Amino acid sequence: MSGEKTEKPTPQKLKKAREEGQIGKTPDLGAWAGIAAASVLVPMTLEKAVEKSREALMRVPDVMTDPDVGTALNMFRDGLLGSAYAVAPLAVSMMLIGIAGSGAQGGIHVATKLLMPKFSRLNPLQGFKRIVGMQALWEGVKALVKTLVLGAVLYFQIKDLIPSLMTAGNLPLAVLLDMVKDATIALIRTAALAGLVMAAADYFVVKMRTMKQLKMSKQEVKEEYKKTEGDPHVKGQIRARQHAMARNRMMSDVPKADVVLVNPTHVAVALRYEPEKGAPRVIAKGQGNVAQKIRDLATENRIPMIQDVPLARALYGSCEIGTEIPAEFYGAVAKVLAFVMSLKSRGSAAGTHRLAA
C-alpha cells in the first residue's frame, strides 16, 4: 500500500523534526553524567572551599586587632574571589557535561517552533494516548528498573558500611567521618554508573521510537522529492526550453559564418574567422535536422558550404560551440578558408563546393 509508512525519514523530514523538538533524546544521560562528575568534583571543591575559608579566618584576628575599613573590604573581596575560584571548576564542568550530553545524542538544536503556541498540544486525546500508550508503559518499566537498580546499589553499599560503623566505637570522629564520606562517594559513583547504563538503554529505545514515528510512505517521499528537487517532468520541460533557446541562439549566429563544412547531409559545422580574436571558431554545429537547418540558413545567406567529410566529422566530434578549433586542424581549415577566399574573388562562393584536390 502506498500509504504504509515503510521508508526511512528523509534529511528534510529529520530537519523539520529537529525544528519542532521531535528528537530522540533522554535527559537521563546528561543527568547521570553530571552526578558522576559531581562525585569527583564536589569533594575537590569542598577541599578548596575549606582551604580558602581557613585562610580567611586566619586573617580575622589581624582585622580585629587593627580595625580598618580598607583591610576588612580587602579580606571580604579575597574571600569572595576564593569562593568563586573553588566553585568555578565545578560550575563550568557541569555546564560542559550538560552540553556534551545533549550533543552526544544527535547534536544541539534550538527547537524554535516549540516556542510558538500550538493548540494541538492541548488535545486531550493525545494526552490520554501518552498516559496509556507504549510510551507510558516504557516510562513505567524504566521507573521500576531505576528503583530496583538503585535500591540494589544502596543495599550492597550500606551492607558493607554498617558492620564497619558498628565496630568503630573507639575510632576518632575524623576517621568515622572519612569512612562515611568514602562510602557515600562510592555509593554515588556506583549509582551514576548504573544510571548511565540505564540512560544508554533509554536513549536506544527513544531513538528507535522516534525514528519509527518519523517513517514515511513511498508517496510522501516522492512528494518531498518534488518539493526539494523539483518535479522531474517540470525539470525536463525546463531543460527542453533551455536547449531550444541555446539552439535558437546558435542558429542566429549562422549568418555570421565564413564557411559551413558539411558531411554532405548528416553533419554541418559553421566556422567564423576573425584574425584579431585568434583561431577560427565553431559558431554552430549539428546533425540530422539541425544540420539541415544550418544548411538552409547558409543557402539563404549565400554562405559557402564546403563538402569535406573527414574534416566535418572531426570538427563536429572534437569542438564545442563558441570554442576555437584545435591546433591539429589549423592546416586543413586554412586550406578551406583559402579556397573560400578564392571563390569569393571570382564571385561564386554561394552554394556547395568540393575542396580542390
From TrEMBL:
Localization of this protein: Cell membrane
Organism of origin: Catenuloplanes atrovinosus
Domain of life: Bacteria
Compositional bias annotation for Basic and acidic residues: 1-10
Annotated Pfam families: Bac_export_2
Assigned GO CC terms: plasma membrane
Protein name: Flagellar biosynthetic protein FlhB
Signal peptide annotation: none
UniProt keywords, alphabetically: Bacterial flagellum biogenesis, Bacterial flagellum protein export, Cell membrane, Cell projection, Cilium, Flagellum, Membrane, Protein transport, Transmembrane, Transmembrane helix, Transport
Family membership noted in the UniProt record: Belongs to the type III secretion exporter family.
Transmembrane feature ranges: 84-115, 186-206
